[in-house]
Amino acid sequence: MWSGHHLISMEQADPAQARALLALADADDFAPDVLKGRSVANLFFEDSTRTRVSFSLAAQRLGAHVVDLTGKGSSISKGETLIDTAWTIEAMGVDALVIRAGQSGVCGLIAERVGIPVINAGDGTHQHPTQALADALTIGRAFSLDQGWDFSGVRVAIVGDVVSSRVARSNIGLLGALGARVVLAGPAAMAPDSLADLGCEVVHDFDAVIDQVDVMMMLRIQFERGGGEGLDSTAAYHRAFGLTQDRVDRMKAGAIVMHPGPMNRGVEIADAAADAQRSVILNQVTHGVLVRKAALAQAIGGL
Ligand code: NCD
């Protein structure tokens, strides 16, 4: 999980580190000046609503200054490379870089070449570690796992365009490390059998898992990354893999509905599911701020 002071990936996540971070986020009793006088730069070269605002609020609530840079309006649009941009911002004396970029693996490459902590806020189809931490905190709180954060009784379905999803990859790594069983569901093009190599079960019949899981995590089709290629129609997809009212009604008692956002209502998730009583989608957003506070406090606040 942490590689040195960087948070880049949840592949081979360290359960002890993950549990320590979840406990810190869950307690949320940070002193308001943990990061007083420090500054955090958000370098977001891809669109984002919740992740960027969430990192900004997390840093501010710990007393840090935040500077925001996006692809549009920065020298990236003049041809500057990401590493030159990162070095430039580092040279101004910031304490950490929070980076979102379209190229898979780029956050790790930048981390090797700067002297300050890098937190990956989503890189291509690779990883999105703080989203997985927000999701783990949400699951842990929903099922009262806060004594030890042991997820071994929990079965999680990740449904939809898994192959395009950095959120799925980070959740597979983290939830698996915490002991959960993960099943991936989707059409073969979105959930190919080869993903079983990540230590998951893979199924192509969504209805077969509806009443078998404690967590139903729905994913958007990532059309901008070529996801959904060969799809007949979004209506046909909704019938086969959408979380409809009927499917919500067949879920286990106590099972929860999750989605990292942004949602495409009527495609992977119906209004009735997104807004259902068992939906914890807005809790995921709330918990995103908590885990980002914990991650920043650990990276640069000495916690
Ligand atoms: C996702 C992302 O950008 O990776 N959203 C998020 O950060 N909560 C998922 C997506 O774009 O579908």
Tally of DSSP β-strands: 11
Rounded Rg: 19 Å
Q: What is the mean pLDDT? A: 96
Read across the widest sheet, the strand sequence of neighbours is 9-8-7-10-11
Indicate how many domains the architecture comprises. Answer: 2
Q: How much helicity do the residues have?
A: 25-40%
Biggest sheet record: 5 strands, parallel
Q: What are the distinct ligands in this entry?
A: N-carbamoyl-L-aspartate
Number of helices, counting only DSSP H or I runs of 4 residues or more: 10
Proper CATH architecture of the largest domain: 3-Layer(aba) Sandwich
In a few lines, what is going on in this structure?
The chain has ten helices and eleven strands. It is of the alpha/beta class.
Give a verbal description of the structure:
There is one protein chain. The chain is α/β, with parallel strands linked by helices and 303 residues long. The protein has 2 domains: 2-127 and 285-301, Aspartate/ornithine carbamoyltransferase (Rossmann fold); 130-280, Aspartate/ornithine carbamoyltransferase (Rossmann fold). The protein has helices at 15-27, 50-61, 82-91, 106-111, 129-142, 166-177, 234-241, 245-250, 271-274, 281-300, and strands at residues 2-3, 6-7, 39-44, 65-70, 96-101, 118-123, 155-159, 181-185, 201-203, 215-218, 256-258. Strands 9-8-7-10-11 form a 5-stranded parallel sheet, with helices on one face. The longest helix has 20 residues, at 281-300. The radius of gyration is 19 Å and the shape is globular. The two termini are 16 Å apart. The chain binds N-carbamoyl-L-aspartate (NCD).
